[in-house]
Design a protein that fits this description.
With 389 residues, the chain is α+β, with helices and mostly antiparallel strands. It has two domains: 3-131, Rossmann fold (3-Layer(aba) Sandwich); 155-387, Methylamine Dehydrogenase, Chain H, CATH 2.130.10. It has helices spanning 11-23, 34-44, 60-70, 88-94, 106-116, 144-161; strands spanning 3-7, 27-31, 48-52, 76-80, 98-101, 177-181, 187-193, 196-201, 206-213, 216-224, 232-236, 239-244, 249-254, 261-266, 271-276, 281-285, 289-293, 301-306, 313-317, 320-325, 330-335, 342-348, 357-363, 366-371, 374-380, 385-387. The strands form six sheets. A five-stranded parallel β-sheet has the order 2-1-3-4-5, sandwiched between helices. It has a five-stranded antiparallel β-sheet with strand order 19-20-21-22-26, with no helix packed on it. The longest helix is centred in the middle third of the chain and has 18 residues, at 144-161. The protein starts with a strand and ends with a strand. 37% of the residues are buried.
């Protein structure tokens, strides 16, 4: 049976998790701080790490970085604090496979562990491959409880699909609001390519292409990228650029069956978003570094900026650069001048508690939104934005 390393500074929490997993036959290691966790990872060869984000001294992201240096294929599940919601972009940026939010149910814990923990521990010297992610459609079928939930959700979607799951806040175009159910649930990047909406799912490691059909969106293509943790997408002609903040790279892929890989560009930081404005490929990372890069052999930056809000999403719309921060749900509007002067800060009129903003795009004056964990894509007018000034 697999060996699990539990890293949490709360003894009671470690005890509770240990008891649940030990009852399922798992071999358990424990650590109460970062240095101890790294030492156990070196000597104990765990198959999976459950890592609390808030640790004294060396925090969760720092420990995670150390774990990846020890074993880049070691799966890690982040555990967030009580009431804290970890955005998808953050999970991808830190290099984790998934996250659990306290308090979580025992069944949810076991179910999540089973996704990533292999059936046995490799003997010394044997090379360990990272566990292959199951296809997106398989997630709802992994437990009877989730299967019942998925069927109930599908039934609800069918019941309300006649009304197209939309509402009008007002009759004006500015107040337009519509939700399209049935989309991928963990969208971390979104863009329009012609009349097709392209979305990247960080958990399923897949790219989905949607087309408008009647009052809804229809899934027309799926590309599985098994080794790519998608944090950004951009289309330049017949090339897709895909950011992977975990591996600190941008991939160039041909728009063809399977999205064949053309080239990998190493990046100095963890690129969390991409956008192509017709001339430049814009990139940004969670540290606030933004750059305009000419698509080409090396993606060298032509112009660099520093953004104080430290966004993990970007989009250029007309004379503005829009950015967003997943953890707060705030959107920022910047003037396209020499310093990207901040011109406005906005909140969303329609909050979705527990489902943080994970991707956005503009098209024809409409704002398109995705939220982590919610299998819905939203189309809204500008009235959805509430100025915070």
């Amino acid at each position: 049976m697999s060996r699990i390393l539990i890293v949490d500074d709360e003894p009671d929490m470690r005890l509770a998790v240990r008891n649940v997993l030990a009852s399922k036959g798992y071999d358990i290691l424990e650590a109460g701080d970062g240095p101890s966790a790294l030492e156990m990872a070196r000597t104990g060869r765990p198959d999976l790490v459950l890592l609390d984000m808030l640790l004294p001294g060396m925090d969760g992201p720092g420990v995670l970085e150390g774990l990846k240096k020890i074993d880049g294929s070691l799966p890690v599940i982040l555990i967030t604090g009580y009431g804290q919601t970890r955005p998808a972009a953050d999970v991808v940026r830190f290099g984790a496979g998934e996250y659990l939010q306290k308090p979580f149910e025992n069944a949810r814990l076991v179910e999540t562990v089973r996704k990533f923990a292999p059936g046995r521990r490799p003997p010394p010297g044997e090379r360990r491959e990272p566990p292959a992610p199951p296809p997106a459609a398989a997630y709802p079928r992994e437990s009877p409880r989730r299967r019942r939930f998925a069927l109930a959700a599908l039934g609800l979607a069918v019941l309300i699909s006649g009304a197209a799951l939309h509402r009008h806040m007002k009759s004006s175009r500015e107040a337009y609001y519509r939700e399209y159910p049935g989309a991928a649930a963990n969208i971390s990047a979104m863009m329009w390519r012609g009349d097709k909406l392209v979305a990247g799912d960080w958990l399923a490691r897949a790219v989905y292409v949607y087309a408008r059909e009647g009052d809804g969106l229809k899934l027309v293509e799926t590309y599985q990228l098994e080794k790519t943790h998608i944090s950004g997408l951009a289309a330049v002609g017949d090339t897709f650029y895909v950011a992977d903040s975990w591996r600190k790279v941008i991939e160039a892929r041909a728009v063809a069956p399977g999205l064949p890989l053309l080239k990998v560009f190493p990046m100095p930081g963890k690129v969390s978003a991409l956008f192509y404005d017709g001339e430049y490929l814009w990139t940004c990372d969670g540290d606030g570094n933004a750059a305009m890069r000419r698509p080409g052999l090396e993606l060298a930056p032509a112009v660099s900026f520093r953004l104080p809000e430290k966004p993990d999403q970007i989009f250029r719309d007309g004379n503005y650069l829009w950015t967003a921060v997943s953890s707060t749900g705030r959107l920022y509007r910047h003037i396209l001048d020499d310093s990207l002067t901040l011109d406005g800060t906005f909140a969303l009129r329609t909050p979705q508690a527990g489902y943080p903003l994970s991707a956005f795009a503009w098209k024809d004056g409409r704002l398109w939104l995705a939220r982590d964990g919610l299998p819905v894509i939203t189309e809204a007018g500008r009235a959805e934005l509430i100025s915070q000034e």
